[in-house]
Amino acid sequence: MKKSELKTLWKVARLYWCGGIFFWIVETLVFLIIEGWHYEATNSIEIYCDKIVTNIWLFALNLTIFICVCFLFNLNKTFKS
Length: 81
Fold this sequence. Notes:
Blueprint: H1 3-35, H2 44-80
């Protein structure tokens, strides 16, 4: 994979990380105001929002790992040639 493609994928991963964090902060603040402090999600909408945040973060993590592996393979090819 080319370096420019890896940079583009990194920008996508960064958007997902930042978007997930922003959504998590907003969702936490909204349900903190509505329901007060609690340890477990009690509202079905809150549970669904937590699942959305989890999926966003898992996608961003998997994409980041993929980018790192591709980058290491590119380094290996560079040093061999």
